[in-house]
Amino acid sequence: MTANAHPGPVGLTVKGAVAYIEVQRASRHNAIDVETAKAYLECCREVDNNDSVRAVVLCGQGASFGVGGDLTEFKLDAPRSARKIIGPLHQAVSILVSLDAPVIAKVRGNVAGGSMSLVLACDLAMASANTKFNFAYTNLGTSADLGGSWHLPHIVGLRSAMQIALLNEAIDAERARELGIVNKVVPEDELDAEVERLAQRLASGPTKAMGRMKRQLRQALSNGLHGQLNAEAISFVEGAKTKDFQEAVDAILGKRTPRFVGA
After folding, report:
1. What's the whole-number average pLDDT of the chain?
2. CA 26 to chain centroid
3. On the chain, which terminus has fewer CB atoms closer than 10 Å, C or N?
4. Parallel, antiparallel, or unpaired for β 132-134 and 171-172?
5. What pLDDT score was predicted for residue 164?
6. Alpha-carbon distance 91 to 256, whole Å?
7. Residue 30 has pLDDT above 80, yes or no
8. Which residues, 6+ apart, have CB-to-CB distance to 167 below 8 Å?
9. Which residues lie across from 186 on neighbouring strands?
10. Rounded distance, CA 118 to CA 116, Å?
């Protein structure tokens, strides 16, 4: 286990093949200020450069995942502060969605604004039963960031996205599951263990293949069928060159469980 390399507003811990990126501002409900945004990007870059990481968990310290931007940053020069927060976080989201390693959101408590957009950007999300979501942007007289306006309609559909984004009604955990915002809801006292099990399962899988699958599914949102068929053919052939593909073939033919190495 690698100790927390970032004792500031965002912590990065690597345990085995799983990286944990945690916003550490529990006293501010994990609201994101300029320094937090910069630290988040730094952690994402470190994960991207660490070939041993095969799964990533995003989480927040304390009782809430996060409430979006720290409004105290916007008291003086709001446009300047917005640019200084959004710039690093948009780079961070771009890194997270391009990782081969699956990214899991571990969600509890209040989740609003940019923090909700981070959850939407993850590959999978698990929430405790006490979780409450609120897109919240128009309540602040602004619009979405961190890819929220792209991910939300793709996940829940345009009509539901309009309702969520324009009315800013609280969404409880079970409704979030029904909408596809999270994959699973568990009791609060089981969340940490359930996410750990999921992360370890993914980290023991064929990481490069998962990365190709993630990219295929995202490409499918804009590709036509013929374009997707071409992309699949190229990706499958590339996958057939990997150690994990050969291991899977040998294991299946040998009637044993494959032992993937993520390469």
Report:
1. 96
2. 19
3. N
4. antiparallel
5. 98
6. 41
7. yes
8. none
9. 128
10. 5
